[in-house]
Write the structure tokens for this entry.
Amino acid sequence: MPRSVDHAQRRTEIADAVVRVAARDGLHAVTIRAVAAEAGSSLRFVQYYFPTKADLLTGTLNHLEQLSHDRWRQRLADLADPPPPRALIEAFCTEALPTDEPSRAFHLIGTSYAVLAMTDPELARHPFIANIDRLESRITQALSRAQASGELAADLDATAEATRLVMLTHGLGTSVLIGQHSPDTALAVLGYHLNQIFRATAEPNSTSPG
């Protein structure tokens, strides 16, 4: 009998070749021909799975995003279900920072993709922003849970704070990529900010003697 083809594995191998080219030469250098050479495959082989450069980039981004989500879930695996709000948020933000090769690859390609999508309508059609919106929504829910249990100040705007956390993480990640700050410094800044919003601000109600 003919051996079955693992199409998912082949897509993964091509996506890994995209990551290597992008990490070495920049996302602008990613072409179907360059990726085929990197993967040791034919041009036609790559085009069978990813007919256009946009397909190649979005497929790779989807692959890296799934890997990032898997690592995020692994960080939460030993915690209660649902995980404590701070632990959930800290796990997401830590995973989103480029502190090792897998997270660096995801941040590098995601940031470069966003820049290219500003002027490329085909790339802009990828639901990249929608994915970030879903993350913000989940962080908002975690902050609201923390607020309800008295871990956060009652007047904190959970939606605005979730947006700020995502933007802070992206900004810190970019600063690490360009060599402005080290991963340790980025993690320290993140911890400092989380300490500010999760510090004990709720005080028990008390009645003054009349």
